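Regression test case RT-17, inverse folding.

Input:
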């Protein structure tokens, strides 16, 4: 089982494909790396990249410590860089959703030398501005042991039954730590004007954070944002049929670098 030890924690990952540049895919809170398979990202991207899929800390086969300090975004970056070192990767493209997007933004701010490109959905690079007003309520549901209620509040994710069961069987404290760390993240707003990483931010006008995502895309020298017709989830991730074609077009110019 492919595991690296980083920040004293075991992080599980999988690699798909043996040709092309590396693309690291970092899932949001709750979801294991299985979501990339079930949402067809692996099928659609596998002919173009060597894919590195990560079980984020507190999820799947990675460790789930109860101490909140292990869940800092800075620590999650170290997990990614440890996998990079283990695989002998020079640089990589990065696709992140939610907490994975926060990891990506911080790498673009502090570790840009590792990135060929950055693709983001489900997050903006600013401190929590209250746009996600349901976050505190969701944390409380989990704290009260009502993870099924949490999932019922997100039926639009169209989660497969086995994915729901994995979430239900996971560590509630790990989920709380992940969500609270994400909510407390201070963002990288001051770094945006100097970012050299080429970035694509996916969003939709129906998304509560749309205006912040649009502003971020305009603030980054090599950033752009793409407005999807609608937010359409499958197994907790944006529909791959909507994301992958523009993602491939966007990364094409960076693939030879």
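Golden output:
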């Amino acid at each position: 089982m492919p595991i690296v030890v980083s920040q004293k924690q075991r992080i599980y990952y999988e690699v798909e494909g043996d040709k092309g540049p590396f693309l690291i895919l970092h899932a949001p809170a709750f979801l294991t790396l299985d979501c990339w398979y079930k949402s067809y990202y692996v099928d659609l991207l596998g002919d173009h990249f060597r894919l590195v899929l990560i079980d984020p800390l507190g999820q799947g086969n990675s460790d789930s410590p109860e101490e909140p300090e292990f869940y800092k975004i800075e620590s999650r970056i170290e997990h990614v860089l440890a996998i990079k070192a283990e695989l002998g990767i020079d640089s990589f493209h990065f696709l992140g959703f939610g907490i994975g997007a926060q990891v990506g933004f911080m790498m673009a701010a502090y570790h840009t030398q590792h990135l060929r490109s950055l693709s983001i959905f489900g997050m903006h690079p600013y401190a929590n501005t209250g746009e996600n007003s349901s976050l505190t309520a969701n944390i409380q549901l989990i704290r009260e042991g009502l993870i099924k209620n949490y999932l019922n509040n997100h039926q639009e994710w169209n989660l497969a039954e086995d994915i729901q069961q994995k979430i239900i069987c996971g560590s509630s404290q790990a989920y709380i730590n992940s969500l609270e760390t994400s909510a407390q993240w201070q963002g990288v707003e001051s770094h945006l004007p100097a970012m050299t990483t080429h970035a694509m931010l996916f969003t939709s006008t129906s998304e509560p954070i749309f205006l912040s995502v649009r502003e971020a895309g305009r603030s980054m020298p090599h950033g752009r944002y793409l407005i999807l017709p609608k937010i359409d989830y499958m197994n907790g991730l944006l529909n791959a049929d909507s994301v992958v074609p523009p993602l491939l077009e966007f990364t094409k110019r960076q693939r030879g670098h």
